[in-house]
Design goal:
By secondary structure, this protein is α+β, with helices and mostly antiparallel strands. It has a domain of 119 residues: Gcn5-related N-acetyltransferase (GNAT) (Aminopeptidase, 3-Layer(aba) Sandwich). Helix content is 30%, strand content 35%. It is built from five helices and eight strands. It has an eight-stranded mixed sheet with strand order 1-2-3-4-5-6-8-7, sandwiched between helices. Helix 4 links the parallel strand 5 and strand 6. Helix 1 crosses helix 3. The radius of gyration is 15 Å and the shape is globular. Bound molecules: coenzyme A.
């Protein structure tokens, strides 16, 4: 099944499929340690060439059904990213990160609701998983507000921190 590349709209935001040209703004956002320390797979400091290659590959990932990644725009400016990746067996992994200047205004919850619906209705997934570092209270609130259920806590390696951390894992089942 090919999932149509389309934008999603919320009251204040537009979420559009990412393009290669988003890499520089993503690099700027991830240059903030307070953002990137919460991203298990990201390097710090960020590597511009690696981020450019990653964004260059994202249209292909979408068409292959591997990952659906949306740039979140407020008034035409990219303030963050919401994605569904690691898609396998009808389940994807929800991720999100926002420019620190955009925090605390309800954008994460507002933005992430649309890709959650997209995952169920457009992509036909049966559910989503997600997780956050145990010290990331805000992300726990985001997942709770999206309806995710807490599953367990596991030890994982954080690339950005360069150490093992406790990760709280969650799931959202569309079939029950
Ligand atoms: C986590 C993140 C996405 C939250 O974005 P945000 O736009 O500030 O979130 P919202 O404004 O939608 O707030 C969501 C909830 O978190 C709460 N919250 C926000 N910041 C908080 C903080 N520092 N401590 C505790 N709760 C917090 C809000 O109060 C809200 O809950 P409430 O409605 O019950 O009051 C943002 O902080 C971020 O990008 N962090 C860095 C990257 C990251 O952590 N990504 C997730 C990795 S798992």
């Amino acid at each position: 099944m090919t999932v149509v590349r389309r934008s999603l709209r919320t009251e204040r935001l537009v979420l559009r499929p990412t393009i290669a040209a988003d890499a520089d703004q993503a690099f700027a956002i991830q240059s903030d340690w307070d953002v990137t320390r919460m991203l298990r797979m990201a390097s710090f400091p960020p590597d511009l060439e690696e981020i450019r290659q990653w964004f260059h590959d994202q249209p292909r990932e979408w068409l292959a059904g591997e990952a659906y990644r949306f740039a979140v725009e407020q008034d035409g400016r990219m303030i963050g990213l919401v994605d569904i990746d690691e898609i396998a067996g009808g389940v994807g992994s929800l991720g999100y990160w926002f420019d620190r200047a955009a925090w605390g205004q309800g954008f994460a919850v507002e933005a992430a609701r649309s890709p959650v619906r997209f995952a169920r209705e457009d992509a036909g997934l049966e559910g989503l998983k997600s997780g956050h570092a145990a010290d990331n209270v805000a992300s726990g609130r985001v997942l709770a507000k999206l309806g995710f259920c807490f599953i367990d806590t596991v030890e994982v390696f954080s690339r950005s921190r360069g150490e093992m951390i406790d990760q709280r894992r969650y799931a959202l089942n569309f079939t029950t």
